[in-house]
Design a protein that fits this description.
Blueprint (H helix, E strand, L loop, with lengths): L3 H4 L19 H12 L2 H9 L14 H14 L4 H10 L1 H7 L10 H10 L2 H18 L14 E2 L9 E2 L11 H7 E2 L2 E2 L4
Antiparallel strand pairs: 1-2, 3-4
Helix pairs in contact: 2-6, 4-5, 5-6, 5-7
Length: 194
């Protein structure tokens, strides 16, 4: 019988890059990166963000390509906080590859992501995300009818036993839609379920 003590061994202090175990990566992010590179994403965001960056003063900043790819990770994985995005990026080799950060480089800190978010105006963020979502929709990688839900916790008017609850956290338990409300309210009364 093998024991844990028999399996224990002294780890090497230095490991060559070629000897590191590599995973195939995440297929969605690989495909997304191929599309972004084919559509010249980095050049697009650099041209849109040039007015927010000094050309030669200060320390090197977070490039717009890395910054917006980091926000895309947060968007696609449902991570709203910069700390969560920074942690997820530092933790995943596939996401490091997606963003373009080598194993010998540090991933951006949450404060760097936050500072860059404050630096770039809201219109530029909207323009970049609309462009990316448009490219993804054209290529069939994303589809849907709604991009976001915004509202406060409350209930849709109706019979108290048939209320439709929703929250403002972006995750609706039941989204009220015109068709759904029409089905539930037949002629001003609540329709009975069969």
């Amino acid at each position: 019988m093998g024991t844990r003590r028999q399996r224990e061994k002294q780890e090497d202090l230095w490991i060559a890059h070629a000897e590191l175990a590599s995973a195939p990566g995440h297929p969605f992010y690989q495909r997304l990166n191929e599309l972004l590179e084919a559509e010249a994403f980095d050049e697009f965001v650099e041209s849109r963000c040039a007015k927010f960056y000094a050309s030669r003063y200060g320390r090197p900043s977070l490039t717009p390509g890395i910054y917006f790819r980091s926000l895309l990770i947060g968007y696609f994985e449902g991570i709203g906080a910069e700390r969560g995005i920074a942690w997820r990026l530092a933790d995943s080799l596939a996401l490091r590859r997606f963003v373009g950060i080598g194993l010998d480089e540090y991933t951006p800190d949450h404060s760097t992501i936050s500072r860059t978010r404050r630096l770039i105006d809201l219109d530029t963020h909207r323009e970049v995300f609309s462009w990316v979502l448009g490219v993804l929709a054209d290529r069939g990688l994303v589809q849907g009818q709604r991009i976001a839900i915004d509202g406060c916790r409350g209930y849709v008017q109706g019979h108290r036993e048939h209320r439709l609850g929703f929250t403002c956290c972006g995750r609706a338990r039941t989204e009220p839609t015109q068709a759904g409300l029409h089905r539930r309210h037949a002629g001003g009364r609540v329709a009975h379920r069969s």
